[in-house]
Amino acid sequence: MHEARLSGPELPNIITLLFERFPENPLLKFLYYWEPVVYSLLIAGMIILIGFFATRKLEFLPRGRLQTAIEALAGGLDDFVCGILGPAGRKFTPFLGTLFFYILFMNLSGLVPFLKPSTSSWSTTLALAICVFLYVQYAAIRKLGFVGYLDHLAGKPRGILGLSIVLPVLLFFMHILSELIKPISLSLRLRSNIWGDDLLLAVLANFGLGGVPLLLFNTFLGMLTAVVQAVVFCLLSTIYFAVFLLEEEEKTTATT
Length: 256
Description:
Layout: H1 2-7, H2 14-21, H3 26-33, H4 35-55, H5 65-85, H6 93-109, H7 122-153, H8 159-163, H9 166-205, H10 212-255
């Protein structure tokens, strides 16, 4: 298993380098096989530390740069989410905002020497997408009710359409299939883009000094890609919430 990974074009990270040097060390072997988890936990710990120092001495009118920056970013994310979901979407801002920063820092960590982006592994991106999927279904059931949720999946059959059994059942299973495909497409999109950037940087790094200009240019592109992919993941996740929330708003509006 590890020979296949070591032979692939990949930027060296500290765990892989240590494992190559001491392949029989049980701790390094464990860390090597769980590299994506280790680096994702490292990023999570860093975000927790940033949050701790930013909120350690909260002020109504912030004078510290860290609190000011965090509040500005939080306000921008809240406007972003509420701009799609409306005021009712504010309850989802903490989840979506945390998701955005978590993915962003994991993406950018691949540009730091001897670190590895956990989002280049499908196990990481799929876990994030499953979290989004489960939360969306939970929020939909709470908002629409279980019967309303099933009604939505069946395409809201009414009248003659409601009397037909085959078509609502067909729509129901097609809708379930589309919901199950969403986390797969969401995770593969993020993983493929970050893995592709990591692969390109590794190839350019093998060119030596002649590849430095291209390496620097693609590092800049990698930073841009890291931000864009975090935004795309967060945007699509917000839209998944909107599908069910806007459904309930339309229902409420029609009733009133």
